[in-house]
Every structure is written in structure tokens, then in C-alpha cells.
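Milestone 3.1: sequence recovery, worked example.
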């Protein structure tokens, strides 16, 4: 009984979905002209069969008999006019269909041109990134070197974050004028350090701006860019995200870059990268755009309390708890290095 009810429910849903489609096909179909002709033929036959034939075969009688078909003459005249209207309606429908087909073709051509230019720009961007060179470093190694230089420099200068006393008053909202002046000094030093150590690659940054500009402004009005945006952002590593962020932060002349990374949603991509909180605060204060810090999801889908209890249970059972894991390839390489060292010592 329950299976029958489910089948009946599925049948009802199918009927509700298919009935509008069937009615639409019925209305748009070319079924009604033949039906109209058949109806006229039936009506003519019923009227003609009701008219008595003349008893006397004279011209006057046949004239009267012919005049009795006046109603049918008016009917066919009206049908002729109706046929003209039907012809006009069919032509109008055909014109609309042609316009819709032309519009679909136009949208497809615009979409194809947008995709062609977008993928070409993405390829040019990757080629430009590969060609970046500083000394012996090339490609993303140059970007990594610049980011590492920034990190080391701000730590050595002691300006990689707010001191504890300032951080506490910052969190509680009780900063004094002297505190704000100390923070301004930290900002000043970071602008100096980042602007010098980031070593902006102008050609790479310009190419990235062109890519974002086409992604945002080159799309036709009928096209949603969400999928294209996600595809482009997926090709940009977190190293590049942080690099472009620091360029936008430290270079006042890069107003177009800041505008594009905000309008395209690239800030959300940047917010997932490892960026100093002080740099985030500076970007919000001086350029008016906030980067939300995202929590990094745990590598294991277990709570910290559950992990601790599991480690204690394993230790109580006589085992040696392990909290880290060394990849198999690394272990084999280390074992081979030790064996080579032992052979060399012998």
C-alpha cells in the first residue's frame, strides 16, 4: 500500500511537470487551421443539406436557390479575412523565432569571444610569471624570495605586529593618542620595508591587472562571471595572492589594482593566504578595504579534546603515541642517506 502511494505521488508530480509543457506545445502547434477547415466543411454540409432543391427546373427557381447560399458566401468571405489574419500571425511568429535565434547566436558569439580573450590572457599571465627573473631565481621562486625577505625584515625590525600592551588596548578600544602615534610608527616602518623588499615586477602586475579588468568588464551583460572568476582564481597560488596584496598595500600608484581586486572578489581569495594582521589593518585603514580573516580548517576532523583522549588511551594501553607523520618517501630518503654515510665511514 505504501509503495502504491509513493508511485501515485510520483505520478502526480510528473503530471504536474509535464502538463504545462504539453499545453504549451499544443498552443504553439499548427493544429488549429485544419480543425477550422473541418469545422467549416461540417457547417457548410449541414447548411447545404437543409436547403431544399427547386421543384421546377426554371431559371427563376434556380436563382432563388442560389440566393439561399448567401449565408455561406458571407461565411467564406469572413474566413478569407480570417485566413489573412492567420497568415500575418504566422509571419509574426516566424519573425519572433528568427529574432530569438539571432539573439542566441549573438550571445553565443559574445561568450566565445569573451572566453577566448580570457584564456589567452590567462596563458599570457602564466608565461609572464615564468619569465620573471631576479638573479638565479625565476618564476614563483622570485615571488617567494620577496615574501620571505619581507617576513624576515619586519621581524628583525620588530614591527611585525602590535606589542602586547598596544594589542590589549586595541582589543578593548582604549587606545590613547600616544598609542596611535606608536602604531603610526609601526605602519611607517612596514610601508618602508614592504615597499623596498617586495620588489614589484611591473610587467607581471600590469598583466594581472589586464586579466582582472577583462574578467570583470569584458563579460557580456547576459553572462554570469562566477564560474570564470573561480577558474581564474584557482590558477593563482596563495604566494601570488599575498604578493599582489603587498604590492597593492605598499604602492599608492596601484589604485587600479586595488580597485580590481576589490570588485572582482579577489580580496576574499587573499584573505585565505597567510598575511600579517598588521598588514590587514593597514590595508583597511589606508585603502578602505577590509580583509576578513578565515579560520584554517583542522587537518583532522576530530576535536582537540577527542584527540587528547585518544592519545592518553593509546599510551595507557602500552603504546607510544605519535602526533606527527613523516611521508614514506622522506623516510626512505633519510634511511638511504644514513646507509650511504655508514658505508662511507667504513
Amino acid at each position: 500500500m505504501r509503495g502504491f502511494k509513493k508511485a501515485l505521488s510520483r505520478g502526480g508530480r510528473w503530471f504536474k511537470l509535464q502538463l504545462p509543457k504539453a499545453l504549451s506545445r499544443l498552443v504553439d502547434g499548427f493544429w488549429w487551421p485544419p480543425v477550422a477547415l473541418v469545422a467549416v466543411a461540417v457547417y457548410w454540409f449541414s447548411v447545404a443539406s437543409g436547403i431544399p432543391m427547386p421543384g421546377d427546373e426554371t431559371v427563376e427557381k434556380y436563382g432563388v436557390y442560389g440566393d439561399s447560399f448567401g449565408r455561406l458566401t458571407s461565411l467564406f468571405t469572413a474566413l478569407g479575412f480570417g485566413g489573412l489574419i492567420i497568415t500575418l500571425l504566422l509571419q509574426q511568429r516566424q519573425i519572433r523565432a528568427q529574432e530569438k535565434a539571432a539573439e542566441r547566436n549573438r550571445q553565443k558569439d559574445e561568450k566565445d569571444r569573451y572566453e577566448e580573450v580570457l584564456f589567452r590572457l590567462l596563458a599570457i599571465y602564466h608565461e609572464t610569471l615564468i619569465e620573471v627573473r631576479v638573479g638565479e631565481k625565476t618564476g614563483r621562486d622570485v615571488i617567494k624570495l620577496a615574501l620571505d625577505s619581507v617576513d624576515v625584515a619586519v621581524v628583525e625590525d620588530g614591527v611585525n605586529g602590535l606589542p602586547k600592551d598596544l594589542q590589549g588596548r586595541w582589543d578593548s578600544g582604549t587606545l590613547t593618542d600616544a598609542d596611535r602615534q606608536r602604531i603610526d610608527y609601526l605602519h611607517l616602518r612596514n610601508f618602508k620595508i614592504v615597499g623596498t623588499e617586495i620588489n614589484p615586477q611591473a610587467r607581471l602586475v600590469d598583466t594581472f591587472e589586464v586579466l582582472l579588468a577583462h574578467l570583470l568588464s569584458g563579460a557580456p551583460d547576459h553572462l554570469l562571471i562566477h564560474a570564470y572568476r573561480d577558474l581564474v582564481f584557482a590558477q593563482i597560488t596563495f604566494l601570488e595572492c599575498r604578493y599582489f596584496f603587498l604590492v597593492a598595500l605598499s604602492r599608492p600608484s596601484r589604485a587600479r589594482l586595488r580597485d580590481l581586486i576589490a570588485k572582482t572578489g579577489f580580496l576574499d581569495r587573499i584573505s585565505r593566504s597567510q598575511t600579517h594582521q598588521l598588514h590587514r589593518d593597514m590595508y583597511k585603514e589606508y585603502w578602505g578595504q577590509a580583509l576578513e580573516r578565515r579560520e584554517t580548517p583542522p587537518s583532522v576532523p576530530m576535536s582537540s579534546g577527542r584527540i587528547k583522549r585518544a592519545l592518553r588511551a593509546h599510551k595507557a594501553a602500552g603504546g607510544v603515541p605519535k602526533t606527527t607523520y613523516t611521508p614514506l618517501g622522506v623516510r626512505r630518503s633519510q634511511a638511504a642517506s644514513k646507509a650511504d654515510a655508514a658505508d662511507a665511514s667504513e
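The longest strand covers residues 133-134. Residues 70-131 form the longest helix (62 residues).
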